[in-house]
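anyone seen this seq b4? input:
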Amino acid sequence: MKVPLRYQVTESDCGTTSLINAISYVFDREEIPARLIHAATTYTLDNFSKNGGENEGGTSIFSLELLQHWITQFSDFENFPIKVKLLEKEEATLQLDKANKLFSKNGCILASVWLMHDAHYVVITNIDKHFAYIFDPYFVEPKYFSKSKNIKIIKNMPFSYNRRVRLSQLFLDNKKDYSLIKNNEYQELMMIERKEK
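predicted toks r here
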C-alpha cells in the first residue's frame, strides 16, 4: 500500500526527506527494501553549514552522485526495479516532454528550488499545462502563501503533492519561492522511476 509523504523534522533534512518521499511515491511500502531507506539516510545530510555546523548544511550534489551510483548497483545486484538519473549543472534543465513521459509512468523528480531564499529539495510528481504539483517537505502554516497567486497549499493529497505552483513561477529566473535553481552550484534534478522489465 502507499503511505502518505512525510515532512522534514529539522531545518536541514529536506534532501533526505524528499528522497525518501520520491521512493515512497514510486513504490508501495511492501516493496521498499529497508536497505534503500538506510542508504538514503546514511549518504545524505553531508554538508556543513556556513557557520561550520556538521550536517546542518543539508545534502550536497556529491552525496546525490554517490546515491545514484549506489542505487544503480543495488538495482542491478538485488534485482530491485528502481531507475535513477541525476542531471546537474547545465544538464539540469526541466524538459516538459521528457518530464511528462516520466510522470505518465508514475515517476517523479527530486528537484532543487528556491524557498525563502535558500536552496531546497522538493519532489515534483506531475505537471500539466498550467501547474506543477509538488510535495514540499517543509511544513508551513496553511495561510503562509495566501497572498500568492502562483502558489497554493493543498491539504487533501497527502500521497502525491501539497503545493500547486504555476509554471510561470517554477520557471522564473530569480530566487522566488519554488522557482527552479538555475546556477551551477546547486542546479540538479534527479529522475526516479520504476525500471521497466
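Helices lie at 14-26, 34-43, 61-78, 96-104, 167-170. The mean pLDDT is 93. kinda curious what u guys think
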